[in-house]
Amino acid sequence: MHNRNDSQNQSQDGVVVRKRRKGIYILPNLFTLAALFGGFYAVVMAMNGRFDLAAAGVFCAMVLDSLDGRVARMTNTQSAFGEQMDSLSDMVSFGAAPALIAYEWGLKGLGRWGWIAAFVYCACAALRLARFNVNTGVVDKRWFQGLPSPAAAALPAGFIWLANDLGIKGYEVQWVMFAVALYAGLTMVTNVPFYSFKDVQMKKSVPFAVIVLIALGIAVINIHPPIVLFGLFVVYGVSGYVVYGMRKARGQQTSMISTSTDEPDERGLHK
Q1: DSSP secondary structure string, 160-199?
Q2: How many domains does the chain have?
Q3: Quick check: is 18 in a domain?
Q4: Residues 6 or more apart from 128 whose CB is under 8 A from it?
Q5: Measured between alpha carbons, how far is 100 from 16 in angstroms, rounded to an integer?
Q6: Which CATH number fits the domain that encloses residue 32?
């Protein structure tokens, strides 16, 4: 006699049918593992004093992290395992890694204040990712609630990359690093809206001028990547406060909560 937990089920015709075992999709998780390696590589390079390569590792992790979800949707290989794996990878690459790199590069000289700033950033990244996971069903897809962790990681990593490129030592700008780490960390856990770019349809046709603008954008980045990339992420990191101020001034809703589910789950989300 077979029960519901058996690995085999018997059909009405008496034919034994084996249950299909659930597996793990390889393709999207390869991108996630590669992003995780980028964060791990960044920490190792920081420990070896190669802060330029450490920053590059964080930026590579950002690119790979932006691809795993798109690949999963394009190949219809989304899974709960993939979501959890992506969240854990983000915590390493955009939470722990930037905090440790910033501490090794410039915050160490501040003593207690240095590790406090690094911990605040790391803790805020964890809180940001946890809130994102539980609010997925109620937040407007066009906006992020708070600065997304990859963009937050780009602020300290980009600042270190730029300073290293200009020959500036960490101890010379340690308080600036302190401010950048706190700003990036605390902005992650605010209710400030940041545009998510998720409503951009990659499969739709676009005017020829758009392709030309993309090519020009790539060319501009290659003029001096540290300055251009850091500048772009600074603009994005401030844009949320600009949008918040404009909405507030116009009397529009500033909360990104778009639908109602359970009332207790939404307490404290609206502002």
Answers
A1: HHHHHHTT--GGGGHHHHHHHHHHHHHHHTS--EEE--TT
A2: 1
A3: no
A4: 146, 147, 148, 149, 152, 188, 189
A5: 55
A6: 1.20.120.1760
List, in sequence order, every residue forming a beta bridge with 143; answer none if it has no partner.
195
pLDDT band with cut points at 50, 70 and 90 for residue 13: low
Residues 93-106 pLDDT 10s: 999 999 999 999 99
pLDDT attached to residue 151: 94
Ramachandran bin of 14, using left for φ above 0, alpha for ψ from -120 to 50, beta for the remaining angles: left
Integer Cα distance of 200 and 206 in angstroms = 11
Give the domain range for residue 98.
Answer: 26-196+221-257
pTM of the model as a whole: 0.81
Q: Are 153 and 58 in contact (CB under 8 A)?
A: yes
Query: How many CB atoms are closer than 10 A to CB 206?
Result: 12
